Amino acid sequence: MEKKEEIKVKRNRINVLVLGSGARENAIALSISKSKLLKKLFISSGNYGTELLGENVSLDNDFSQIKKFVIDNDISLVVVGGEQLLVDGIWDYFKEDKQLKDVLVVGPSKKGASLEGSKAFAKSFMKEYNIPTAKSKTFTKENIDEAFAFLETMSPPYVLKADGLAAGKGVLIVDNLVEAKEELNSMLMNQKFGNASEKVVIEQYLDGIECSCFVLTDGKNYKILPFAKDYKRIGENNTGLNTGGMGAVSPVVFCDKDFVEKVEKRIILPTIKGLEKEKIEYQGFIFIGLMSVNGEPYVIEYNVRMGDPETEVVFPRIKTDILELFLALKDNKLNEVELEIGNNVSVCVVLASKGYPEKFEKGYKITGMDNTKQCTLFYAGVEKKNEDLLTNGGRVIVVSAKCRSIKGARRKCYSNIENILFNGKYYRRDIGEDLMEIEQRRKENKK
Ligand code: AMP
Ligand code: GLY
Fold first, then answer.
1. Which of 159, 121, 141 has the alpha carbon at shortest distance from 195?
2. Which ligand minimizes its atom distance to the CA of 136?
3. 12 alpha carbon to ligand 1 midpoint, in Å?
4. Same domain for 242 and 198?
5. Which atom in ligand 1 lies closest to the alpha carbon of residue 205?
6. Whose CA is nearest to atom 4 of ligand 2?
7. Apex CA 45: angle with CA 90 and CA 227, to 5°?
8. pLDDT tens for residues 267-278?
9. pLDDT at position 149 over 90
10. Which of 203, 219, 247 is a domain's end point?
11. Which of 170, 186, 203 is at the close of a domain?
């Protein structure tokens, strides 16, 4: 006979929809698929990896189509993977609709999403709540002369940021003043990033080491998820063009207890208090891009979603039932759930198509996945055609592995990568190397 508790859980099982189609959503879907609270999982539009975990559906990111699907399929919870739908106001759309208002959307309200959708808003929020960040000023074409004058008061390198969403390309770091002025001119006067650069934030350059902090909040209570480090540049030793991220590691050796306490006290707490004070509704992730400058944390940016590829190392370390955490976002109950994190190290490496993040070719057959072990594969640009898997994007597969040490996790990742084959396979071989060196130096200093 089933125990009472099990019967109760069964009765409370829910249908869930995840919106997105990258390796991040594959990782989110994997955690959800393991939940004892799940009845059925849908992913729109999903990918080859999510098809193995639930049902892929194609909803075109259109609010009314999403509404119909949610109602027809008795969905209780929607996880929004990327920022665009949040910035477009999907949370508010649900809240304001009579039939959808009880469906939980994991994410912020439109106003909350402005923390990512408008860098000028994020800067003024940080200023208001005394959150440490680079000094900055915001300009439009109306006061471009003041912007030029402001640049002259700064020292290089010059950091120019398009205010709005610019597909991760809106930040320019320029070494000389003449070029900085030219870039500023093309952002403000020639709409280099379209509407996104109608406003430009000019800010002080922060010299330090970056890391990603993830917080899940119900708008009042919060849980700090594992920290991660992302490797954004295409080339080894952080050279070449910026990408969505070529690999990640969690935890991060320099984000020790002391640093995390500073982040919590100086950044997380005032952020949550600020949201409350501004009456900004928020039931989702806050991804705080941090720069550690000699051990002091500064906010580089807020994002209102999980990171990619950081999710592929953060989520595998979360031991708590993910749906239990999500459901607690309703009615401010997050404080009632205990967050349990595994104490192993996760490393992930992105397998990309040669040429990414610029031009690359698609349609190459991928083989060798059956020869992988002790790792998890998260899929991104992969298409199934007949019985074959073909490359279908710049970021193809993310290989993620856990071990007691970073060294062991790297070894597992890289040995499995050898077995996955496709034409033009490119990946960085140095993911986590810098962290191993820092760890080594710390050990030697302790001796
Ligand atoms: P973002 O799109 O805001 O993440 O910025 C892209 C990248 O630019 C960040 O990951 C940093 O590496 C770099 N960056 C942004 N702001 C600054 C800053 N104030 N000082 C130094 N680097 C920065
Ligand atoms: N990996 C950085 C991001 O997701 O924005």
1. 141
2. 1
3. 43
4. no
5. 20
6. 307
7. 70
8. 999 999 999 999
9. yes
10. 203
11. 203
